[in-house]
């Protein structure tokens, strides 16, 4: 029995290691590649600890532009989806009971329809509408942001609706009646009774909608027009080869996610502890340690964490200079290179000596291959890393803030193209 | 202080599809009255209340409040305030915010609301509890907050939908008195819904007894208890022993009923049945447990019956003796516990007697289910 249970424990442990390795391994490996100096994301050989890829990221116009578009579209989608989702959920509670099942099936359908189909249909539908209205092709109905928001909202609104339905099921309609009875208008009853009750659900639906919008690729790819989102940009980048700045972006997102999740967990635990120790509900809810603007405002907390994180990164980057290390590596490389060149020269001379008549042709060929191996890193080593540039890098992580919260899985997906590429260096 | 206004239901019918929830209700509730609708669950009493508060339009007939027809006027425009069965306190608002909600929606300033909340909290004897959330209050406190919230709206009519049903017995009895006191202090019309006849009788000026959508009787507690209009009222309000039989003879207000098992018994004909009940009609005779007594001797009479004791139950103030009745039912007799030696050993035969004027004869009809 004893050995049996021990075996079981070992097996369980092994399974957990494999399982978490499978889940988190790629993320960890990718995070480390963000700090390695070679210009292709790789973990081995480890050359120099560097922050230059954050700098490259901060100066990558396309990525920044993609993030900006993603955020604009994300906010638009959040607004539209939350409103539509709430309306849809409320409708479900009001609708004639016999129609309820049918209605539910209809509004849930977009979740089941492939995103590609939604993307194409959005494009075709609004194109038709635009033509019907006689608008030019540059009009709002052909605008990439407009179309992407509409296209994504078609199914994200359904996700939101599910969240709202779950919350609404616990709502006592007697409360609305009580409000009406006390003289409130229907609008007041909605605003003062139902909306505060729905607030937590609205929060989670908004986060869900934003994450779903941010990571969406297959619908967006049809509708983005002139406004590529981050996922679109990343996908396009992958085609032309990537550098570790994408790892840097992934690292920022992972860190923000972890910090956000931890902060939320700490807050929740502390609240539970206070309640368990007999603190009254109103006191716990009311005496949140942070100033009023911040209480119950995750965005503000994240912003502060972000600023702190950004500041400390910049400080560290300024105090630590990888230049000497890089010089060493470059020196080493140069030495290796020289040795190779030397070897080639010797070989060539040998060749020349051996086959005097065939010289010039081989000479040209072998010389051109040697510098080619060196070139990809060179551009990045320039003066990118001086402290002046670093200050510019601060805004880069900022627009990222709403990303932090629960959607770890979501972001894992976004970066899958890079994960795939990690295999590449080993073939080199 | 607002003066209560009349509430009139004129020929009100309320239907849900084919189901008739309320049938031809005609009620006249006077201003400042404490009026109760009493009936078993599902009899349509809450439906009537909802039609008064405006959550439901009657299918037919009129609801008037203060003489004004309320058709098409929403609940937020009616001079009524409803206390819900589950109280429906707003869980996310503090107690004082709950109480002054009706002022908030009218745009009263915070200072005004606080002041009024403090007054009302004093009135319901919960000072300094304003900052709490409803979930931190006990059942009785919540109850009082709900009352304060309704009164804060300064309604002309206060509607109460079984507000005490969730409380335990002690608290319920305490709240009865408190509610009655509040009603007398504010002087507005109270319409109270309950299935508990004790509540209805102790608090109300007038009671309407309902059965399956029909109002069987409207009258004071005394009238409903002592002079029921239907067998249903007789059996639903308080306890009653039923004797089925046929009318043998009628003499003025008194009728002699030949019962199936217990011989011929004399009783007063209920007011509503006087002149209608005829010799030979199937009838029901009702004798309350407290009206029955042990006869001094065993000689037969028209106000005496003999039966055997089944078992006994001691309640403290009274003790109940259960005896064999007709159709498998037991006859219950309640005797005040005054320390006398009891003669009711199990299996003994007992001769009971009663004052014929305190027993009631009604045409046979539907009884309340036990």
From TrEMBL, chain A:
Region annotated Disordered, chain positions: 350-428
Compartment annotation: Cell membrane
Stored InterPro entries: Bact_Polyamine_Transport, MetI-like, MetI-like_sf
Domain ABC transmembrane type-1 intervals: 67-264
Chaperone as UniProt keyword: no
Chief localisation class: membrane
Keyword annotations: Cell membrane, Membrane, Transmembrane, Transmembrane helix, Transport
Keyword Lipoprotein: no
PROSITE patterns noted in UniProt: ABC_TM1
Bilayer topology annotation: Multi-pass membrane protein
Domain of life: Bacteria
PANTHER family: PUTRESCINE TRANSPORT SYSTEM PERMEASE PROTEIN POTI
Family the UniProt entry places it in: Belongs to the binding-protein-dependent transport system permease family. CysTW subfamily.
Protein name (Swiss-Prot/TrEMBL): ABC transporter permease
Originating organism: Sneathiella sedimenti
TrEMBL record, chain B:
Alphabetized Pfam families for the sequence: ABC_tran, TOBE_2
GO molecular-function term, one example from the UniProt record: ATP binding
SMART domains, per the entry: AAA
Coiled-coil segments on the chain, per record: none
Record domain ABC transporter: where: 7-237
Entry superkingdom: Bacteria
InterPro entries named in the record: AAA+_ATPase (IPR003593), ABC_SmlMolc_Importer (IPR050093), ABC_transporter-like_ATP-bd (IPR003439), ABC_transporter-like_CS (IPR017871), Mo/tungstate-bd_C_term_dom (IPR008995), P-loop_NTPase (IPR027417), Transp-assoc_OB_typ2 (IPR013611)
Keywords on record: ATP-binding, Nucleotide-binding, Transport
Protein name from the UniProt record: ABC transporter ATP-binding protein
């Amino acid at each position: 029995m004893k050995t049996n249970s021990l075996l079981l424990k070992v097996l369980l442990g092994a399974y957990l290691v494999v399982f978490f390795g499978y889940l988190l391994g790629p993320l960890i490996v990718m995070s480390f590649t963000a700090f390695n100096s070679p210009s292709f994301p790789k973990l081995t050989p480890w050359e120099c600890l560097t922050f230059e890829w954050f700098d490259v990221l901060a100066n990558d116009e396309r990525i920044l532009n993609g993030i900006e578009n993603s955020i604009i579209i994300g906010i638009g989608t959040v607004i539209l989806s939350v409103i539509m989702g709430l309306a849809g959920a409320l409708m479900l509670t009001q609708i004639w009971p016999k129609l309820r099942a049918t209605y539910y099936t209809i509004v849930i359908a977009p979740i089941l329809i492939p995103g590609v189909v939604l993307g194409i249909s959005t494009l075709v539908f609004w194109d038709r509408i635009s033509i019907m209205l006689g608008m030019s092709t540059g009009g709002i109905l052909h605008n990439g942001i407009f179309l992407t928001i509409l296209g994504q909202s078609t199914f994200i609104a359904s996700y939101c609706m599910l969240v709202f339905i779950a919350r609404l099921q616990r709502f006592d309609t007697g409360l609305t009646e009580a409000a009406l009875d006390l003289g409130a208008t229907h609008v007041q009853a909605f605003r003062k009774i139902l909306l505060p009750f729905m607030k937590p659900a609205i929060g989670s639906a908004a986060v869900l909608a934003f994450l779903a919008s941010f990571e969406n690729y297959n619908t967006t790819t049809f509708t983005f027009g002139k406004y590529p989102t981050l996922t679109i940009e990343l996908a396009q980048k992958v085609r032309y080869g990537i550098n570790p700045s994408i790892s840097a972006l992934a690292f920022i997102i992972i860190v923000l996610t972890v910090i956000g999740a931890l902060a939320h967990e700490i807050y929740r635990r502390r609240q539970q502890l206070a309640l368990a120790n007999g603190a009254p509900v109103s006191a716990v809810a009311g005496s949140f340690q942070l100033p009023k603007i911040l209480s119950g405002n995750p965005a503000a907390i994240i912003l502060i964490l972000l600023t702190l994180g950004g500041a400390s990164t910049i400080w560290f980057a300024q105090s630590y200079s990888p230049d000497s290390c890089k010089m060493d590596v470059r020196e080493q490389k140069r030495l290796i290179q020289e040795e190779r060149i030397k070897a080639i020269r010797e070989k060539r001379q040998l060749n020349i000596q051996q086959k005097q008549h065939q010289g010039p042709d081989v000479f040209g060929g072998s010389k051109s291959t040697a510098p080619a191996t060196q070139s990809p890193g060179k551009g990045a080593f320039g003066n990118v890393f001086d402290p002046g540039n670093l200050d510019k890098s601060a805004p880069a992580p900022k627009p990222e803030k709403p990303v932090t919260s629960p959607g770890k899985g979501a972001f894992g997906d976004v970066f899958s193209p890079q994960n795939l590429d990690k295999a590449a260096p080993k073939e080199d | 202080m607002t003066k209560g206004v009349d509430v009139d239901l004129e020929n009100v019918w309320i239907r849900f599809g084919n189901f008739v929830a309320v049938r031809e209700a005609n009620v006249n509730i006077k201003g400042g009255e404490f009026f109760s609708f009493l009936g078993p669950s599902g009899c349509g009493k809450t439906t009537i209340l909802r039609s008064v508060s405006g959550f439901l339009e009657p299918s037919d007939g009129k609801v008037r409040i203060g003489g004004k027809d309320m058709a098409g006027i929403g609940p937020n425009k009616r001079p009524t305030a409803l206390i819900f069965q589950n109280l429906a306190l707003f869980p996310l608002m503090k107690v004082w915010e709950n109480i002054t909600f009706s002022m908030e929606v009218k745009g009263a300033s915070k200072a005004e609301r606080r002041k009024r909340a403090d007054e009302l909290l004093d009135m319901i004897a919960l000072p300094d509890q304003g900052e709490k959330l409803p979930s931190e209050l006990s059942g009785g406190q919540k109850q009082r907050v709900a009352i304060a919230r309704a009164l804060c709206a300064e309604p002309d009519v206060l509607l109460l939908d079984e507000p005490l049903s969730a409380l335990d017995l002690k608290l319920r009895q305490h709240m009865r008195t408190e509610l009655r006191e509040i009603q007398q202090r504010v002087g507005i019309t109270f319409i109270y819904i309950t299935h508990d006849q004790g509540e209805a009788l102790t608090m109300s000026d007038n009671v309407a007894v309902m059965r399956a959508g029909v109002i069987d009787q409207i009258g004071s507690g005394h009238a409903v208890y002592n002079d029921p209009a239907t067998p249903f009222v007789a059996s639903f309000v308080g306890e009653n022993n039923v004797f089925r039989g046929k009318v043998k003879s009628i003499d003025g207000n008194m009728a002699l009923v030949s019962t199936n098992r217990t011989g011929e018994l004399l009783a007063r004909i209920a007011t509503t049945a006087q002149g209608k009940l005829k010799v030979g009609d199937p009838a029901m005779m009702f004798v309350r447990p407290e009206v029955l007594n042990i006869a001094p001797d065993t000689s037969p009479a028209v106000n005496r019956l003999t039966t055997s004791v089944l078992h006994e139950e001691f309640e403290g103030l009274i003790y109940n003796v259960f005896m064999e009745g007709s159709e498998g039912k037991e006859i219950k007799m309640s005797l005040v516990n005054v320390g006398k030696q009891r003669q009711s050993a199990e299996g003994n035969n007992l001769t009971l007697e009663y004052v014929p004027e305190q027993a009631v004869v009604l045409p046979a009809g539907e009884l309340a289910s036990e």
